[in-house]
Amino acid sequence: MEELELFLASLQIDKAAILVGDCGPERLEELFRYVNLKQCCVVCPWPARDMEILEERIRNDAARGLFSLPEELVFLPCYRFGGMEGVWAFCPIRCKGADLLPILNYAPQYLAGSILEGEVSAFHIWEQCRTFSREVNLKTWREGRSPVVLDWKKGCEGGKELSVIFPVYNVAPYLERCLKSVTAWKAEYLEFIFVSDGSKDHSVNIIKKWMEQDSRIRLIEKENGGCASARQMGLENASGRYVGFVDPDDFIDENMYRKLLRAAMCGCFDVSLCGYNEYYENTGRIHAAEDSLWYPYIDGCYDEDKIRELITYCRVAIWRGIYRKEWLEKNRIGFYTDLKRFDDLPFKVETFACAKSVVMVPEYLYYYRLEREGQDVSADDERLYVHFDIFAHLDRFVGKSQNQKLIDNLQMCKIQTHRYALSKIRTEYREEYLRRARTDLNYLCDFQRTCKIANMMLGSETADEYRKIMQG
Amino acid sequence: MKTEVITISNIGASPKITIVVPAYNVEAYLEQCLNSLLNQTERNYKVIIVDDGSTDDTACICKKYISEAGDMFRYVYQENKGLGAVRNKGLSLVETPYTAFLDSDDWQDIRFVEKFEAFVERLDFVPDMIFTLPRCYNEASHLLEDWMDKPLYDEIFMTGAGNEIKNLNASICPKLYLLEVNANRKIYRTAFLKENGFSFPEGVKWEDIRPHIQLVHLAKSCVALPGTGFIYRMNRAGQITAGTGKGRLDILKVFEDVLDGIYNGYQASSGGLPSAAFEGKELSAIMHLICNYTIWMIEMTNMEYIQALLEGLHEVFVHISEKMISAYSEDSEPLSGKAAAMDDSAETGRWLLAERNKRIGLIRCLRGRDWSQLLCYEDRKNLYRYWSVNGGKRKNLISGGIQCIRDSGVKYTVKLLFRKAFYAAENFLAKRR
């Protein structure tokens, strides 16, 4: 029994056209054992003689009482199949993606079955039939890796698949390049939400000009309240099934969102990530930010422990991914609007604390703009104290779970954050920061345990740094 | 909804099976479950839905189905009492020769009743329990996966190999104990349950473990129904098994209940004789099962309750009879619930042995005084090995050092020694400060 049988039985579909791919009569017989079809058309891309053998075998086995056949059963070669009447499901079994495309011309209401990984992906097939199909449930068999399932139901009219949210604050010089790169993908199931956070320059005018040419762009204007409040407002107004975030002074590879959405949808992943580049404005040089997180995430990861480890190992970069909105809502993940900076740090920790599945696209597709090489992006004064507010939120969020592994990962995240902050901070703020960091690091884990775990997860050098912080 | 098709042969025949569905606040999943029952291809069966005091739309959804299905479906309400009590209520209302259970967030193969009837017709004896092989639907990946014990199930019943039906019981095949304990995967002869005064434990989680052991022990004949089983929903938010908190401690009561049954036998309600004593092989299999649950519980329980859990487990394990422990450690045939489906039989043997040794290590550790070492997840893996190899004897510096040199070389040992001394000194200083 596979997902296909579940699909047909659950939806009580009684008319189906089965496209036979890389499978024998056993698979068809198995199908008939679990579903209850009235009318069934088996479409064969094989030579006529092979099709006759298949039909004979199936009818003989049914006559022996091994299973019951649909009331109306025909076997047809591909070129003679002309669609079915009324509501029917198109069910490929282990076919090549390209073989599905001609049959999609007959606009089946349901598409369920499996394809082999190849040039035509499940995502491409979904794109072809998303206008006329009510549901798509397409499994992709992958060489040497477990299969993945694209599971999609038609939403309400005008519903979007992906919303990209832009917090806008005085970014006029960079907006054109950003807009050009994100709108280059012309799919109609996207929306771009620009939230002007009380922007004082002519950013809003630029966006309005682009809105005239591209109906997918939406603009929300609000009073200034910080980046977190802008992202939160965007999130609340997004209608897409997935959401992504772009800082409008950055830009993206034109294919970034298509690749992220393809990876995410093909396996119903909660989070889909890609790599990013640092772009130096003064020299134009591009440097790929390596965090070598590809394996095992590029195959799609459902292992909770591996996903929790991303709290420790994944850099803070909210814009490198897209997130399933329904799942964010269920887990009440959003932005803490009281935080003035670094609101993407708690977002990262919370997403990886709750995600059940993560996939990565092994390419560097986002361009993060920096003024010059070695530029110091963080502040170096009391603004760094915001870390303690962030971790106070996270202590509450993670502490509730009482999950040792999760807490250890948060502790590692704290060590790295404080270590980084201490390397930046000016001397006059250092003592105060150290004092508060010690309290923070003592909150969820004791000294001995942290030493041991830091040694294991971050290496002895960072563990030594931690000891220095704790011992002054 | 499809119109009912009543096949001629069944008009007038009384139904053979009742499916009991406990429902508690599951409006999101209930329709899929009831649809799968309403749309069975064979129409001769009963369904009893027992509403466990739901506060959501469950009752309303049920009534919709009652009006559609007529007297095939029955709806009963009782104040919230938990899954065990609800199943007992349902069971008390069953009038058909066979009973099955289905949780309301799972659903059934639409040809289940058809396959069941055809199968029972073929039998020339009356089985006490019929096992099925369910499948898992993973809500995270939307994939349908094999049921956890599929290799073992195939090995035990050798389904698919010819048409011969294997008729087993616990003394012929103690491995039956190692099958997944889930109560929904079995079809029970109603009279078998009633004669033995069987009921599900009430008010505790993990309510399937004791019934599984009890019924496998009591059943004179167990068979497997080929080619069907319900579909189990995994990774659903709020699932009982997903909790990591206080509910995990219920396992202690469950273990006590299990052990009590083993020591005292299971007695029929009508004042009959206690059941036969458990044989060595059976004890060994049950011990393995207890260890599996123990390992799982230790892995899943959160920081708040792990200490309490380990304390309780220590108590339980200390009081397990020597007979049972030695039955397990001296069992010549290593067991596993997930009998490895490896090609290389030598490798399979090694793997099975390692699995058993891990459990023996666990038993020794929990029975000894150092069980608190199991508190931290990163220590556990090595601990099990340590306890199974060394039998829990503490080694002094010299013999431990020699062992370490032999295992990992001189250089590593010296480094380790210095590091340990360094940490000890540091911790000492940190504490003083």
| Contiguous helical run count of chain B | 15
Low-confidence stretches of chain B: 1-10
Shape of chain A: elongated
End-to-end gap of chain B: 74 Å
Oligomer: heterodimer
Number of strands of chain B: 10
**Helix/sheet category of chain A:** alpha/beta
CATH topology of the domain at 8-242 in chain B: Spore Coat Polysaccharide Biosynthesis Protein SpsA, Chain A
CATH architecture of the domain at 8-242 in chain B: Alpha-Beta Complex
The total count of strands of chain A amounts to: 17
Q: Uncertain runs of chain A with pLDDT below 50, 5 residues or more?
A: none
* Relative strand content of chain B: 5-15%
Instruction: Write down the Rg of chain A.
Output: 27 Å
CATH superfamily of the domain at 8-242 in chain B: Spore Coat Polysaccharide Biosynthesis Protein SpsA, Chain A
As for the number of domains of chain A, it is 3
Helix count of chain A, per DSSP? 18
- First-residue to last-residue Cα separation of chain A: 62 Å
**CATH architecture annotation name of the largest domain in chain A:** Alpha-Beta Complex
Secondary-structure element series of chain B: EHEHEHEHEEEHEHHEEHHHHHHHH
Q: What is the residue-averaged pLDDT of chain B? A: 85
CATH class division of the domain at 8-242 in chain B:
Alpha Beta
